[in-house]
């Protein structure tokens, strides 16, 4: 990542650009670099901020989607941010949903890509065999339509993370929290504009999940990215950025 991580008052984040604020929320295993091409595209016209969600820092007994939502609330208040556009991938989308239900006044619009909150098939439905590099490689490749997107650097990062006993316990705790926290009955409360940008070949949160989000969110649009898995902003960044551009133009120029 070419952007320095800012650390202040217990928060860690990346920030670039000026203008209307986009807050990008990473997934459970997501690196900040997952968003690099999104930052590059939007930083000349928008203020782009990526908070590091404290999955590995919060007390494990309180760790869950709601705890990350409360952290996001504290962060936005600390940065004196209001009427932001939240953009979340996977667990980050789920955190954005929980936060928006509780604090819709902070959010101008919401963008979800491969979001959990209704259903997810984490790690392909099986417990990670941490010691096997080939197994971890296979599971990282499972995330994408094109296995080549799972670079050696990315696989190395995930392998290192899941072989840290403390971290893997937190990952599994967080994943269980996300699965338990089904939001189907709460989504009708979100009346702000929502853009769903979804991989047509997502095996973690399959296309029917996007269709259910679209049905349950009263003010939503659904955009498909062909030949794409769970992270469109990584696998097809140009298409992802085009959809996001059009959505931002529509909601911010009103």
UniProtKB/TrEMBL annotation:
<dbReference type="Pfam" id="PF12697">
    <property type="entry name" value="Abhydrolase_6"/>
</dbReference>
<dbReference type="InterPro" id="IPR000073">
    <property type="entry name" value="AB_hydrolase_1"/>
</dbReference>
<keyword id="KW-0378">Hydrolase</keyword>
<dbReference type="GO" id="GO:0016787">
    <property type="term" value="F:hydrolase activity"/>
</dbReference>
<protein>
    <submittedName>
        <fullName>Alpha/beta hydrolase</fullName>
    </submittedName>
</protein>
<dbReference type="InterPro" id="IPR050266">
    <property type="entry name" value="AB_hydrolase_sf"/>
</dbReference>
<dbReference type="InterPro" id="IPR029058">
    <property type="entry name" value="AB_hydrolase_fold"/>
</dbReference>
<feature type="domain" description="AB hydrolase-1">
    <location>
        <begin position="22"/>
        <end position="240"/>
    </location>
</feature>
